[in-house]
Amino acid sequence: MNNEIITQRLEQELDRLKEKNNIYLGYPLAKDFRYSDLAPFLNLQINNVGDPYIPSSLAIDTKEIEKEVITFFSNLLRAPKDSTWGYVTNGGSEGNLYGLYLARESFPQGMVYYSESTHYSVKKNLHLLNIPNIVIRSQENGEMDYEDLENTLFSHRHQPAIFFLNIGTTMKEAIDDVLKIHWIIKKMAIKDYYIHCDAALLGIIAPFHNVRPAFDFKDGIDSISISGHKFIGAPIPCGIVLCKKDHKERIGRAISYVDTKDTTITGSRNGFTPLLLWYALKKMGITGLRKRVQESIELADYALGKIQGIGVKAWKIQMQ
Ligand SMILES: *Cc1c(COP(=O)(O)O)cnc(C)c1O
Structural domains in the chain? Predict the structure, then answer.
């Protein structure tokens, strides 16, 4: 193709994307970002191959930046400094796959429990990992039905239990209560268990709720996955997964020719998305994020009023 045709085609595509970006509504994807400062990085090979905490001899990576992003989320999710590990993923689904992978490596005989409101990708991940699993009923608000969970657990209580919990379901933003899960574990005297949180949607938002829900490391979880392109916003899907270091240490062989460890799902990893997240988080800071959450809640109230005002049936969850 000659250059003129290439330029024309790109302009067409850019115009189409701009128009579509302007008019989409109702998807949990922020679009109020500008990452043009990072454009020079697009002309470089960047590859965060392997474990972010083990520098590769390749050295064309942004692992230092990636670690800062992980530290930011560790602090936000009250994770103990020296015993937490994580990496920047290609999105929430990968982080969920990773959490289930770690759970299975810890408890190969485990059974996974998750509610019927769980994201569609989880069923596929369970199939990929070949882990036995049981779907638990949801309450009307989308939260797990704890009574159904208890009844189901009763007949499997001698088997390790892997809880796959929702911290914001896709449709109703429902939150499964980690403290209630712990209470049930205790009541059933379940010895071996693992708790993973799918916080793709609310991982960055819930820490700023007035009444903070129980869902983080301090509340006793083993791993958590969050999407980066949703609340923060990014032109490339991305996310974060965090876990207790012990779980990670069960997996991961050494890769001799790049001197790092294969502790992640993919081999070569995106080195550009850590820059996107780092940039957004540094620009906003904790104060900016808190304000962003508050403004989003106000905007949702406003939108609900306007939409109902024109006679369209609409609803929103009541946040505390
Ligand atoms: C979006 C979403 C996912 C999947 O995350 P991706 O970033 O699209 O891979 C998983 N669970 C929930 C609840 C989600 O909202």
Answer: 40-280 (3.40.640.10)
